[in-house]
C-alpha cells in the first residue's frame, strides 16, 4: 500500500475555484480511472491558507503510474481543466510526496 500526499498552492483568491473544480469535475475523473481518495483538507491555520491538501491511496507505484498517467492524458480532463483556468490560472505550484505506512499505522 502506498499513499500520495498532494498539496496544491493556489494563487491568492483562487482556492474557491480549485475546490469547485474538484467538486464538479476532478472527482468524476478520479472515479473513472479508479483513483481512490482518502480525504481532502483546506488549511485553517498554517503557513498558507490558500492550499488544498489531499491524500490518495494506491496499491503500489506501478498502479499509481498507470492510473494517474491515463487520467492526465484524458482529452476531456485536459479540456475541462483548461476551461476552468480560461480567465485566470488557479494553481501556483503543486507538491507531492509518496508515503508508506508504518506497521503500527491505522492506514494500511
Automatic annotation (TrEMBL):
Pfam families: NIPSNAP. InterPro entries: Dimeric_a/b-barrel, NIPSNAP. Residues 3-105 form the NIPSNAP domain. Signal peptide: none annotated. It comes from the Bacteria. This is NIPSNAP family containing protein. The lineage of its organism: Bacteria, Pseudomonadati, Pseudomonadota, Gammaproteobacteria, Enterobacterales.
Amino acid at each position: 500500500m502506498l499513499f500520495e500526499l498532494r498539496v496544491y498552492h493556489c494563487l491568492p483568491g483562487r482556492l474557491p475555484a480549485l475546490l469547485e473544480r474538484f467538486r464538479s469535475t476532478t472527482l468524476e475523473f478520479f472515479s473513472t480511472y479508479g483513483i481512490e481518495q482518502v480525504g481532502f483538507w483546506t488549511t485553517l491555520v498554517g503557513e498558507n491558507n490558500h492550499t488544498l491538501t489531499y491524500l490518495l491511496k494506491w496499491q503500489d507505484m506501478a498502479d499509481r503510474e498507470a492510473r494517474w498517467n491515463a487520467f492526465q492524458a484524458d482529452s476531456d480532463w485536459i479540456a475541462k481543466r483548461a476551461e476552468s483556468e480560461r480567465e485566470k490560472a488557479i494553481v501556483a505550484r503543486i507538491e507531492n510526496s509518496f508515503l508508506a505506512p508504518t506497521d503500527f499505522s491505522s492506514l494500511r
